[in-house]
Amino acid sequence: MTTEEELTAQIVALGEKVKQAKADKQPKEEWDPFLQEMLALKIQFKEVTGKEYGPPPKEKKAPPAPPTEASEKNKEKRAAKAAAKAAKEAEKERKRAEREAREKAKAEKLAGIGMDSFGDAPMVQSQCYTDKKWFQIDHLTPVLANDTILVRGSLQTSRSVGKGVFVVLRSTMYTVQGVCFQSNDISPEMIKYIAGLPVESIVDMEGVVTVPNQPVEACTQKMVEIQIKKFFCVVKAKKAMPFQIEDAMRPDDSKEADVGAYEANDDAAAPRKDGLPSVGLENRLNNRWVDLRTPANQGIFRIESMVGCLFRECLMEKGFIELHTPKLIKGASEGGAEVFTLDYFGEQACLSMSPQLHKQMACACSGFERVFVTGPVFRAENSNTRRHLCEFTGFDMEMVINEHYDEVLEVFSDLFIHIFDGINERCKKELEAVRAQHPFEDLKYLRPTLKLTYAEGCALLREAGIEQGDYDDLSTENEKKLGDIVREKYDTDFFFMDKYPLSVRPFYTMPDPKNPQLSNSYDFFIRGQEILSGAQRIHEPDLLEERAKAWGIDLSTIEEYVDSFRNGAQPHGGGGIGLERVVMLFLGLPNIRKASWFPRDPKRLAP
Q1: What is the largest distance, in Å, between two alpha-carbon atoms of the chain?
Q2: Mind listing the pLDDT tens digit for each residue in 308-320?
Q3: Active site amino acids
Q4: In whole angstroms, how large is the CA radius of gyration of the chain?
Q5: Less packed terminus of the chain by CB within 10 Å, N or C?
Q6: Span 488-538, pLDDT tens digits
Q7: Degrees to nearest 5, angle at CA 332 with 331 and 336
């Protein structure tokens, strides 16, 4: 058996050969066999000895012995020097701790920690429910002069002036000014704290109501001012604002068109004539939760809410009940292809583009006779215009008739007059808030509502030199022109037309008994744009199937609908209203997105 010494000698010899060959610059193929043999011997070396081949590890040198003390005197010097150094470090640490304590105390004082009059309030986690009396900002009037009040709101602005600070608090669509100046009761730290809070933070303000010498024009509560005594931040705004509320509130300096394409491009918008900052619609919609804070938007959507209230109020007084229809259906509601489809457990379904079929079943076939529906409506139309949405809120009505669809038109006329009167009477402050940013003319409407036939409307266009056939569909452009003509001729912005061509109406529309090319249908208009479409419906199943086939509708997709008329159905009619379009046109807004909480169009699916 080869010994450790023999293996070592062989490895060394081969190593020398490889080293010499490399020194002589011989090709690798000449000395590579020596290298491979040497590597194999190293493996054998480990098997024999149990250790890697190589020189033994170097022994660590012992640390040098500490120098001997030359004398007892040197030892004392070194000890004194070390003690002095330690004392110096201790003094330095003491001063650092004192400095940190002072800075912490100063920071806490500026933050109001431990203060009774200002600071960051504890997180609201429903830990207690006290008997504090809270006031709404819109209730603050001179009647409360000298009273101490407590309000909560968003910090819209804060402005330092000398040894004081002015703030504006906002709650919903109302604002009030608060004033705080340094005094025996008000510390400089409190002034700095209030002035340093981020705008749009949620704050509690307590103070005494006073009546200013001059109205506070920047606020809705012009005739009062709050002398601040306590000021606490409930929630701090932690993210930079996407735009300033003051910029978003600025009045329009030009009038946009309310028809045509919508580019969804803020860069393409014309700059303001006064050079002040503006906020584009896309930026607003991308940050809708901030944009909705402006007084104008608060007004728009409170008016929109009132429309829903007035709609229900009027119809329920007339004996209608509310119906809730499914939004997942088997086939297209109106026979069109522009629907959003989805998989329904292996079966194709779509989102309802109208509650039409179900409200007819409930009204004419189920004995409810007068029903209305409010809810979302979906249209898969790739229409990037100022007046179209892919999802909007539909207000629908359906009722049985005895003799003529004019019975339905009378209800619709009463309904809209009730809505328009209600907005004007109940939403005065909201209308003022909208008008302050988006100036508009009051809507003109007649009692009863002006009625024209489709042929009469077409004749008015032709009289004005505009080409329009009695059996051709109205273009958006011609609708607008007709609205202008009607306003000039009849002094109204609101009217309706009936007897539309049958070819441009849904399959379930009742044909005109005298002219088979016409239908018992109608549309209502505000400022030259359609806001309601309706008709007398077909209640005979055979005629219904005939009209569906004419539209190319697969009868299997509406089988249940047609069958509902085979067990006896009353004559009936109704219509569907687009809520956002009604609000848009009543307020003279240039884009339907301004009247939609969170719009959905072909290019927008968020937020």
Answers
A1: 134
A2: 999 999 999 999 9
A3: 379, 381, 387-388, 530, 533, 581
A4: 41
A5: N
A6: 999 999 999 999 999 999 999 999 999 999 999 999 999 999 999 999 999
A7: 140
Q: What's the pLDDT tens digit per position in 246-292?
A: 999 999 988 888 888 998 889 888 888 899 999 999 999 999 999 99
Per-residue pLDDT tens over the stretch 157-182: 999 999 999 999 999 999 999 999 99
The tokens for 155 are 């910090």
Tell which wins on pLDDT, 395 or 556: 395
Give the H/E segment covering residue 455. helix 454-463
Q: Which pairs count as long-range contacts for 562-570, CB under 8 Å and 24+ apart, including other chains?
A: 564/360, 564/361, 564/365, 565/364, 565/365, 565/539, 565/540, 565/541, 566/541, 567/365, 568/365, 569/364, 569/365, 569/539, 570/363, 570/364, 570/365, 570/369, 570/400, 570/539
Counts for the chain of helices (H) and strands (E), in that order: 16, 17
- Hey, what are 535's tokens? 């008709």
Pair of tokens at residue 600: 């959905």
- Please give the model's pTM, rounded to 2 decimal places: 0.81
Residues 574-593 as b/e (b if ≥16 CB within 10 A, e otherwise) read bbbbbbbbbbbbbbbbbbbb
